[in-house]
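Course assignment 3, question 2. Fill in each field.
Student: A.L.
Task: Predict the tertiary structure for the chain below.
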Amino acid sequence: MALDKPYKDIPGTTIFDAEQSRKGYHLNQFCMSLMQAANRARFKADERAYLDEWPMTEEQKQAVLARDLNRCIAAGGNIYFLAKIGATDGKSFQQMAGSMTGLSEEQYRQMMLAGGRPIEGNRFVGEDR
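Answer field:
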């Protein structure tokens, strides 16, 4: 049974807590396996076959195959582990983050240089005093 988590009320944000960690354990371990060149080669040669070696959920596997990082995070992925998928694909962290926000790498870079995403709509519900 999940504890009361007031931080679940932050729009557009998934907090990587113990529950998410348990949910995404095998997904994150798969990502860490990509730190070894031999595993990256095996993954790139047949992504589905390599994923099927891991006891991940079908949703997690489909999210990886689609390179849908938001789905991966919802399925328990941690962005620092998921970055290994992007690196395997030759993508920068900015490219990955941009894909998660619907922005191009350049648009994402400009948003961050301008101070990040706007605070409007990104607070706890009821936090506006």
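Instructor remarks: The chain has two domains: 16-89, 92-122. The longest helix spans residues 79-88.
Grade: pending
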